[in-house]
User: Fold these one by one.
Assistant:
Number 1:
Amino acid sequence: MPDLMMLSNKVAQITSEQRSTDSSEHKQHGTILVYQQLNSPELLAKLDSLFARVIYYPVDGFHLSPTAPTPSASELAEADVLFAVQLPRNLTSITQTPRLKLLQGLSSGVGHILAGEFWKSIPADHGLVFANSTGLQVAPIGEHVVASILMLWHRLPTLIIKAHETEEWVSNAELGGHYVREMRGATIGILGYGAIGREVARLCSAFGTTIIACTRTGVPSPLSVSAYQVPGTGDASSSIPLRHFATTDRASFHSFLQQCDVVVNTLPGSPANEGLIGEDELKAMKGDALLINIGRGTTVCTEPLIEALMARRSKDELVSSSGTLRIGGASLDVTNPEPLPAHHPLFKMDNCIITPHSSGLSTAYLGRGVALLSENVCRLRSGKKLLNVLRE
């Protein structure tokens, strides 16, 4: 069986500072219930090297069917570790899993688990450790943000649509002559400076941009040593942003928005973040600024966003002036509602890119998930602090 280091050459690595003792010291203990289809025999082989028994249900947890098979009562009772995006629908109480020590989620968002009956049944003094998979998708999402900026500023959606519709060469005159806007010299504002925001900062800074960040406190802080990080990504020391702003201070937040040529929203869904970007915030943005949302759709008010994307500047208004409900474009990997209903106006706008919450769906995702799980299992058996822990 391949060890973690051999597997990591094909999928992902844990940083040397994070890596626990060699996984070969932790073979063949307990039972893992895998409630998710894996995309490689090597991934199952890795788990087989760590556990005496692997109970495998190859379901699509990202789009779980209501008729998906579920584990038996005896399988649930035997599981020491559960690895899943979504829990089996027949798992409704912690009493069904008397041996369960680790619930390793395979997604960064865990609201669907926290809202379920199983989670609500866990006593406060129970020893279950719960960890999520934040950080697995930073590389593809960072690339998605850069791709979105380049597509909109190079007007690639317009070029592609015109070429498909007319089957003719699109002249530069139709696009406005020298129409390409460069990233070099632009100010990229990152709303939320977690693992994804830090990778966006690293990538965008390579294009000669100025990076500013806006968080709840407005105080720069290093990435937690207990957070999973794909090697070579991000800004662990929080040294890239030129300035930091606070979402909890309206004046600071609006000053941040006014300075941005691109606002990259990475905020998670929460009551505090719901509708954070509304009409006033869109008015604070530059008239030609881009809004890239790879956080959660509920953080942005949809109706004023539609109005801002449809608006055109008046003859006496500067292109980049703020104060009116007008922005230059948007790229939305998340929306409100989600999914967008058929024939929604956002689908028809040539200055808006819609993707179906897919920016993080890298072919390396499941491999990184198994690497994270393996590391956490080794840490659990060694009595060390796990990565990405939400409950312990």
Note: The mean pLDDT is 92.
Number 2:
Amino acid sequence: MIRSLNKVISNNFIIKKNLIIPYNNYKFSNKNNIYRNFCTNNNEELFKKTSIPPNIVFRLNLMHKKSKELRNILDNNMGLGQSEIKKISKELQETSEPLGYFTELEEKLNELKELQTMLKEETDEEGKQMIKSDINQLKEDVIEPLEKQLLFSLLPNNKDDAGDAILEIRAGTGGSEAQLFTQDIYEMYRSYSQQKGWKFEPLEVSTTEVGGFRDVTVSVSGKGVFGFLKYESGVHRVQRVPETETQGRIHTSTVTVAILPEPKDVDVQIHDRDLKIDIYRSSGNGGQSVNTTDSAVRITHLPTGITVAMQDERSQHQNRSKAMKILRARIYELERSRLQAERVNERNSQIGSALRSERVRTYNYPQDRITDHRVGINANLNSCMNSDGLDSFIEEILVQFHTKELEELLS
């Protein structure tokens, strides 16, 4: 959809009053950020207190203006050929969703403006409270969700965002405390997935003697899983007093989180000749089959050197199936990251690097605060760890990243 957003200025013309006019005739003012004689919509003030940046509002106004002109051309059937009709119809279809949100948001912002005017003029205290309640409800239930929907609709389609994900959590620095926090993070995402109606399937779990996990790998399935979780990747830092601490000192530990898009079979082709498969006897604490059958599987992808070992299941077939699922996701992520790095370098963007940046988040237990350092957002820690507040926290992070990405694409 972003391509349509740029067409109005990337083409060498604009359409006005059924005439094709070179856009050079319309001077662009950096100071006022408008095309004079073209963009006459005065809604910039309405959007100032929203999360929609001014340059995106400006582009949306242009898109809305052009859309009206294109519809007028189609309605008047101005001797267009089938190819021109098809091209215009496609562009109108691509822009219909963001323009629908944009128009509805503008209407609701006008309603908000009217309510704020009524509040200033109201003299009765009870009447003021009723208006304030209506204002808060309009903001929280209508305007804020519309802002998010508008921003999301403007982003280019990413097939990975709609699909499933592989979640990998590993204990970092901090010894046993990091391992215990790895389990806490695992439970946080498990509760969140349950709240969202996603399937949460552990694939590989490495436990410790003191409790907690060394590392855990999970398949998370459902609508839009990767799109929601992709910015969770990075180093998560915890500051708290461990249960074993007798002096009451605050310890700092880290956990690494990786979110990989789970590819379909058609996305990644793995040839048998590129695999080295080792079968061996399971070891460690476990069920009846441990140390009794050759059910454990280690698969190495020779071209990339990626190795996955699996022994959690009783049968060799089940272990191989799980190992291949993880291997396929890691190979896909390797190639995806390579292509993303190339794109980032080409446009000198900071967006892609943020996905793997150090210390993306801090969980401060003494202050009951969780902070995302990339976008500077704070939330209640206890609420997020219980998944109640995690959804709104993640959504706000998504809004910030998507806004940044849009500004990069439009710059």
Note: The first helix runs from residue 2 to 10.
